[in-house]
Amino acid sequence: MATYAIGDVQGCLDALRALLDRVRFEPGRDRLWLTGDLVNRGTQSLETLRFVHGLGNSVRCVLGNHDIHLLMVAGSHANAHRSDTLGDVLDAPDREVLLGWLRQQPLLHREGRFVMVHAGLLPEWSLDEAQALAEEAQRALREDFESLAGSLYGNQPERWDPALRGRDRIRFIVNVFTRMRVCHPDGRLDLNHKGLVERRPEGTEPWFDLPHRHGDDTTVVCGHWSALGLLLRPGLAALDSGCLWGGWLTALRLEDGAVFQVRGEAHPSRP
Fold first, then answer.
1. Which residues are registered as beta bridge partners of 182?
2. Which among 267, 193, 198 has a CA at the least distance from the CA of 12?
3. At 92, is the secondary structure helix, strand, or coil?
4. What's phi and psi for 173, nearest 5 deg?
5. From CA 233, how far away is CA 236, in angstroms rounded?
6. Cα separation of 202 and 204, whole Å?
């Protein structure tokens, strides 16, 4: 049995299938970890959801910002963007089954010495704190999505405070797990930066370069930051290597650290 963690697919099912063929993935024997953003921008969002849903217990997936955006658009809580490619999902006869399954996916998956999130872990949170907060936000999204959805978008509050309550608290937690790339040393988030590390706003650092409390014996598996590219180092496996933009779709075998890649097909949109 092997466990393969794979970065953002974003509707590129052909690349995902090619990568799984390359590692000779067998459902029921092997396991697949997906770092979120299953959908959007690529042309096969519906097919990707159906394929991953069909893998059943062989897959573990966390929610990404594009997955949440799909749920928001499907519930008429947000407008589709010009670059979205979600129409096939929204018009599908099995949309409610697929959206219901997507809404049940967690923000954090922890197993052994690995923890998987879409974007990252707030440096000031311990791993136990991060897991508890992820579960709190997950319950809110699953049980009260309709009332929360109208307030999920936004960059405030920009700093964690345990005294946060209600929608501000949930929004901050969701932003950390699905949107964060860089932070200020005092813990404030800068959620506007999407580009290269070298061009980050002055005074900010990548979240993983700040002193953290999640434990040196833990490896964080994540995606989200395509401009960062594949980054493997002690404690970190950042796997979004830009498949959607003509880069690579990357799989990391967790048992031995082996890396496998297939080239993606460039999408006309820009990240």
1. 190, 206
2. 267
3. coil
4. -60, -45
5. 5
6. 6
Alpha-carbon gap, residue 213 to 74, rounded angstroms: 37
Global pTM value: 0.95
Rounded alpha-carbon distances, angstroms, from residue 82 to 10, 79, 99, 152 = 16, 9, 21, 20
Q: Determine the straight-line distance between the first and last CA of the chain, rounded to whole angstroms.
A: 35
In order of 7, 32, 215, 239, the CA distances from 109 in angstroms are 14, 12, 16, 16
Please state the rounded mean pLDDT for residues 99-126: 97
Judge contact between 81 and 180, C-beta under 8 A: no
48-89: per-residue pLDDT in tens?
999 999 999 999 999 999 999 999 999 988 999 999 999 999
For tokens 């969701």, name the residue: 174
Element (H, E) at 220: strand 219-222
Domains of the chain: 3-263 (3.60.21.10)
Token pair of 159, please?
Answer: 């700093």
Q: Cite the DSSP H helix spans in 45-200.
A: 45-54, 65-74, 87-91, 95-103, 127-149, 166-179
Q: Which residues contact 51 (CB under 8 A, 6 or more apart)?
A: 13, 16, 17
The sign of the CA dihedral 164, 166, 171, 176 is positive
Residue 89 near residue 80, CB atoms below 8 Å:
no
CA-to-CA distance for 156 and 34, rounded, in angstroms?
28
Instruction: Report the SS3 class of residue 111.
Output: strand
For residue 38, what are the contacts with CB-CB under 8 A and spacing of at least 6?
A: 9, 10, 11, 45, 48, 49, 52, 61, 64, 66, 67, 102
Residue 222: which of 134, 71, 120 has the closest Cα? 120
